[in-house]
Amino acid sequence: MQLGHLPRLALAVRPTPLQDAPRLSAYLGGPRVLIKRDDLTGLAMGGNKARKLEFLLGEAKARDADVIITVGAPQSNHARMTAAAARIYGWEAILVLGGERPEEIQGNLLLDRLFGAEVRLIETTDEYVLTGVVEDLARELVRKGRRPYVIPRGGSTGLGAAAYLEAGMEALTQLNGLGVRPDAIVHASTSGGTQAGLLTAMKWARAGASVVGISAGPPKETVVRRVTGIVRDLGVVLSTDWQVPPEDVVVYDDYVGEGYGIPTPETIEAIRVVARTEGILLDPVYTGKAMAGLIDLGRRGVFTRDQTVLFWHTGGQPALFAHARRLLTPE
Ligand SMILES: *Cc1c(COP(=O)(O)O)cnc(C)c1O
C-alpha cells in the first residue's frame, strides 16, 4: 500500500493517541473499549476531516486552485476544518451550507465566521439542489477567471478515503504495540469516506476486525452504497481493483432517531457517560450517536463482554455549544 505519490499538505497531528477506556469498559460491564482520538487531529478543534483534507488540498495545490468550495450542513465540521485549512495555505473558502437557518450563530458556524469563510446558507437539505448551487458557483467563478477546487460533502472521495486507509494502518500499529487485537471498530458514518478507508485497511491488513458504521442520519442502504462506491474510487486512486460487496459493509441506522443533527435521549446519555467515566467529550451529531450504538450493541450481545471494541472518535465537539439547550435536559 503506497500513498507516497499523492500530493499532500500537512494539516493533522499524527499519529493521534489511542487510549484504553477502563472506567467506561467497567461501567458497561464489557466489551473492553479503547478510543482512537481523532478528535485530537489538531486542526481548528480537530476531527476526522483534517486527515482527508491533507490529500484533498494537496490535489487543490497541485491543480493550482485559488479558491476552495465545499458543502455541508450549517453545523458541518468538515466545512469548519476546510475554512481553517484553506487559511493555512492562503486560500479563501466558500462554504455552501444547506439546512434550517439557525436562531443563533454558534458552534461550527461561529468558527466559520472567525476563519473569515464566505458562508452561503441555503434553506434546503436536498442534495440535488445543493449540488446545483455548488456547480453554478464554480462555473461563475471560472467565468471570472478564478480556479475553484470543489470538495464534495464530508471530503468523502476516493482521495479523501486514502487518509482513512492510512489511519487504519496507524491504529493497527498502535494496537500491535499494546498487544491488543480488536474484534470491531465502531465509528459514526455518514458520507462514507471514513468507513471506506478503515474497511479497506482492515481487509488489506487481514486484521480480522469488523468495521461497524453507525449512521448519524442517512438510511443504512444510502451509507452502504456510498461506502462501496468510495472503496472502488479509492482503488482507482491507488491503481488497485479493490471492491467490497455491499453485504460486507456493516452499517446500523437504528440510532438516528428523528434525523441528522437531532440528538436522541440515548445520544445525550452516551455523552454524559463518556464525559463522567473518561473525561472525554463526544458530540451530539455524530460520536454521541455512535457511542449510543456501541452501548446498545453491547447490551444486545452483538458485542460480547469478553470482546474488545475500538471506538473511533471522529471529533465534532464544537456542535456541543449549538445544542446547549438539549444537553441541559433534566436527567
Ligand atoms: C464527518 C463526520 C463523521 C462522518 O464521517 P464520514 O467520513 O463523512 O462518514 C463522523 N463524525 C464527525 C464528528 C464528523 O464530522
Description:
The structure is a single chain. The chain has 331 residues and is an alpha/beta fold. It is built from eleven helices and ten strands. A six-stranded mixed sheet has the order 1-2-10-7-8-9, sandwiched between helices. The chain has a four-stranded parallel sheet with strand order 5-4-3-6, with helices on both faces. Helix 3 links the parallel strand 3 (67-72) and strand 4. Helix 2 crosses helix 6 and helix 9 (265-278) packs across helix 10. It is globular and about 60 Å long. The mean pLDDT is 97. Bound molecules: pyridoxal-5'-phosphate (PLP). Pyridoxal-5'-phosphate binds next to helix 3, strand 7 and helix 7.
Quick overview:
With 331 residues, the protein is of the alpha/beta class. The chain has helices at 22-28, 49-62, 77-88, 107-114, 127-143, 158-178, 193-204, 220-237, 265-278, 287-299, 324-327, and strands spanning 18-20, 32-37, 67-72, 92-98, 118-122, 148-151, 184-189, 210-215, 250-252, 308-313.
Main β-sheet description: 6 strands, mixed
Bound ligands, each once: pyridoxal-5'-phosphate
Strand order in the largest sheet: 1-2-10-7-8-9
SSE pattern, N- to C-terminal: EHEHEHEHEHEHEHEHEHHEH
| Amino- and carboxy-terminal Cα gap | 48 Å
Global morphology: globular
Supply the helix-strand structural class. Answer: alpha/beta
Q: What's the total number of strands?
A: 10
Beta-strand proportion: 15-25%
Number of distinct helices: 11
> Which value, in Å, is the CA radius of gyration?
19 Å
Low-confidence stretches: none
Helix % is 40-55%
